[in-house]
Amino acid sequence: MSETIEAITTYLAPRRLDEALQAMADGEATVLCGGTDLAPQTESGARQYKARLLNINRVEGLGGIAADGGEIRIGATTTVAEIRRSAALAKIAPVLVEAAEHFASEQIRNAASLGGNLCNASPAGDMSPPLLVLGAAVELACWRDGAAHTRRVPLEQFFVGPGKTVKLAQELLTAVVFARPAPGFVARFRKSGPRPALEISTVSVALGARVADGRLGDVRVAMGSVAPTPLRARHVEAALEGRPLDAATVAAAVAAAAEDAKPIDDVRASAWYRSHLVKVFVEEVLDDVRGN
Amino acid sequence: MEKTANATPTAKQTLIGTRVKKPDAPDKATGKTRYINDMVLPQMLIGKVLFAGRPHAKIVRIDTSAAEQLPGVHAVLTGKDATGLKFGFVRDNVALKDKVRCEHDEIAAVAAESEDIARQAVALIEVEYEDLPGVFTPEDGAREDAPLIHDNFPGNKSLAFDFQHGDVAAAEAASDFVVDNVFRPHHVTHCCMGTSCAIADFDHNGKLTIWTQTQYPYNYKMDLAPALGLHPGDIRVIQPPIGGAFGSKLDVYPYEPIAALLARKTGRPVKVIYSREEEFKASPTRQPAIIHMRTGCTRDGTLTFRSADVLLDNGAYTSWGPTIPVIMMRTVSGHYRVPAVDFKAQAIYTNNPYAGSFRGYGNVQCTYATAQQMDMLADMVDMDPLAFHLKNSQKSGEITPQKSFLRECALVECLETAAQASDYSRKRKEYAAQQDAPGRYKKGIGLASSIHNAGGAKIHKSDGIGTILKMDDYARVTVITGASEIGQGIDAVITLIVSEELGVPLEHVTLVNNDSDIAPWDVGVHASRTTFIAGNGTRRAARKAKAQILAAAEKVLGEPAETLELRGGSVVRDQCGTPIIKLDRLLRQMHFQAEPELVMVTDYYEPKSEPEGAQHMSDHSAAYSHAVHIAEITVDTLTGEIKVDKVTVAQDVGRIINRMGLEGQVEGGLAIGLGYALSENMLLDHGLLKNASFRDYKLITAPEMPPLDLHFIESDCAEGPYGAKGISELPTIVIAPAIANALYNATGVRIFNPPMSPETVARAIHERRMQTAPGKATTPSEALAV
Ligand SMILES: Cc1cc2nc3c(=O)[nH]c(=O)nc-3n(C[C@H](O)[C@H](O)[C@H](O)COP(=O)(O)OP(=O)(O)OC[C@H]3O[C@@H](n4cnc5c(N)ncnc54)[C@H](O)[C@@H]3O)c2cc1C
């Protein structure tokens, strides 16, 4: 229907990873997974299809959740609906399941993939904050010199700007991995928008930490929609690390949030409201962990 | 005498008040319905419009040569092809413009073999603009040095309305309490699921057939004609199934004459259909307004006066929107017993998108103000708002200052029913006491009510409807009626009434109501009028048919017509219900006898209402009705999110005809009202729409629809069909102020500039706290405790 779709001359839907990587080795393929970002973006003219459209949904081994070992691995084509339904993740990393709960609508969750959510690199992407607090990394694969090569990039180094990542055009995101959280690890996620359902986050906050003797350790705090990329809130983390989880610490963390969150005014919310919400959510997730 | 196969008595049963499904529901639910958007005609071309994309500018140069040369392009039209073809309420609009007055102004149009070619051609049109300073609020537009938008409308003044009754100054002097606020209701749009679409085709005699979504096909011909230089008689309007209108199709909009101009130029049918983004930008809006309202009362809670000074944001052209003060002033003067009234409204041209009519028609904006001021005054005199409302309620037989005769008035019953069902008074006290207690989540309950015309509105010389009813040899009934079906359910109502009167199954009734060359005249779907007006028309026509049939039965059967009835597809003895002859058989006997007769009757029904008139003092509707909404909400005082937990509705419906249709209209109307109250907002930046998508324009979605507790009060309207009143607009009108009053009950803040979005509410609560205890809290929740 649109002129951009007519730019596609080749459509590929390989079953093997090698084939997929070879098909994009020249950096001249558009990768299609659920299409829930790609379709609206091309339709509106915000981006153009390349001549080769590469559907990765049928590639064997790119989907599924492996949660048995010390490292948890979620394949790139795993849908948000699968994450939401995963009994294993509900036990190991409930924060991811919770983020999936608040993600879009049933129809979108059935199509939307984890890999697509990260590669789209929206500052409002809902999978990023929980994965950041889980200390996740992404695996990027490409075809070079007649073989597949894979590198790992920590998620916090993956995003460079709205819609921009360190992933090269010839690289495919194959999986997201993170170490099985240690006993005592807790995590929380909060998101908000003007409407409870089918909503792009106005602001989101995730907290992950080890709790022992009323103190927080290995604290990770991540925020969405407060900067050009999802980010680690280093000031809030510093205010929490090793501290007793009392009212003074919470107040310090809330104050520190203003240092980390540098939101802007846009159609969805004013900078004032975003800053306000960040404080509310930082306090809320901490109170929740404190158990009140 | 005829013997019948089945002589079991047929019991007297009424369909009135039962649940009847819409005849088109199965087709719509299964995707079989062919909407206008799906229609393709042989040889059809696709028309596309070049929009200005800027709010105010001169067109210096326009070059269409590249577009014209593109293979597959059949015509490219610009402003010069529409010169002098002015249309619109005050003849200020034209299909293709020679000056830009708003973002969606149509600068050129292309007809091409395909959508893609048309789109490419539009992109090839070169336009050089010289931007002009614009005005984006009515206050700015009214300033003396404001840029002029239309040369022939000095001061950017569009329509103005005035109404005075009683001595407001004296009444104010006698008031113990006066509330004085400025309300700023915002821009929203209809968001029909089916985007705007028209298909136009001329025959070689110069007659235009236009397939379009209009909800007023007959006056539409009159309004469309000048945009094309045609005689209205040379226009045939066909209305295929559409995906919603809600008032947005109560005028001619430029895409319709554009389709026709392209069709005339190319000699082929041309279809113009909007994308969702175009729909957001080019659709009419609900009229934003600045309402300065004052209301007074005495110490014992008796209303003394109300004054409203209203500035309306007309937008760039005058559609029906600027006429909404006609309804606003009825609310200002007639919403409760107000002895002295002063109402002034002025619509001002701006470079914003222009307003049209929208379900609730001015009353949504006005009730947002009146119903909150009722709540504020009750607070000032320290009365339960329920008692305050009851004290000032009109009763049956009263006449409002504007001469609306409230023949059957059930306001008191609505108030008492809703208050009792929701335990309003107790909860309100309890929640108010909790307002400043610690705690993040606050509950609130709010009551609001309004009045609306419920028997049409005689804004034209006639508010009537024509009906033709015919029966065939198989006792199948065809009703040819002016009543348009735009999704509101008149098809079910008419079917039900025919079935009730003629005793035929619902499925044996067919409607023909979508072709202006066939169906007789009607004003259109607006003013909550169709069930009332078309219901009366249908009943009268059916009763004429019945009289004819029973007279024939008397001849055939030798039993007096008065003792006979039509029931269960037969002529029966009224007393015992025993069938005597099958209806189809009787009809055939009538048809094939020596002096043959066919059942085909006509009716023209004109309601007993008075034309609006220049002084706005008339009984302009054949009925009026009230509704009370009580909203129960939970407010997250930190994020500002409002969750609507429950809405109790008590509405005077006169008499229920189709209960399922009634419930559907109330639920749907509430959904529109909830969106208006909480989340919908057209974000305009210097006249440019920033959220032209469903991602950023927030309609209410299914999970946010609260549980509804519906109470229908049957006041039995003497003039209505079976006692029914019109019902469709009040559900949209009353909910927003009910939520606003609940928000006040929960938190002590009032929002004068809807929507009550989380951000707006959070900021208001935050500011209130900063005033009561500035700068003490270190965390958001600590701020709650101070
Ligand atoms: C109505 C609606 C609601 C939404 N709500 C939300 C929400 O609540 N929260 C939220 O975070 N998002 C939301 N989204 C955005 C979107 O659904 C998500 O970002 C989704 O996860 C994208 O996944 P996808 O599989 O559809 O990606 P696609 O659209 O297929 O791809 C997105 C981008 O990533 C690239 N890509 C995809 N997979 C790979 C891969 N494995 N390797 C390399 N590149 C790849 C594509 O080329 C494309 O550039 C919403 C979208 C819609 C339409």
UniProtKB/TrEMBL annotation, chain B:
<dbReference type="InterPro" id="IPR036856">
    <property type="entry name" value="Ald_Oxase/Xan_DH_a/b_sf"/>
</dbReference>
<dbReference type="InterPro" id="IPR046867">
    <property type="entry name" value="AldOxase/xan_DH_MoCoBD2"/>
</dbReference>
<feature type="region of interest" description="Disordered">
    <location>
        <begin position="1"/>
        <end position="29"/>
    </location>
</feature>
<feature type="compositionally biased region" description="Polar residues">
    <location>
        <begin position="1"/>
        <end position="16"/>
    </location>
</feature>
<dbReference type="InterPro" id="IPR016208">
    <property type="entry name" value="Ald_Oxase/xanthine_DH-like"/>
</dbReference>
<feature type="domain" description="Aldehyde oxidase/xanthine dehydrogenase a/b hammerhead">
    <location>
        <begin position="30"/>
        <end position="133"/>
    </location>
</feature>
<dbReference type="Pfam" id="PF02738">
    <property type="entry name" value="MoCoBD_1"/>
</dbReference>
<protein>
    <submittedName>
        <fullName>Molybdopterin-dependent oxidoreductase</fullName>
    </submittedName>
</protein>
<dbReference type="Pfam" id="PF01315">
    <property type="entry name" value="Ald_Xan_dh_C"/>
</dbReference>
<dbReference type="InterPro" id="IPR000674">
    <property type="entry name" value="Ald_Oxase/Xan_DH_a/b"/>
</dbReference>
<dbReference type="InterPro" id="IPR008274">
    <property type="entry name" value="AldOxase/xan_DH_MoCoBD1"/>
</dbReference>
<dbReference type="Pfam" id="PF20256">
    <property type="entry name" value="MoCoBD_2"/>
</dbReference>
<dbReference type="InterPro" id="IPR037165">
    <property type="entry name" value="AldOxase/xan_DH_Mopterin-bd_sf"/>
</dbReference>
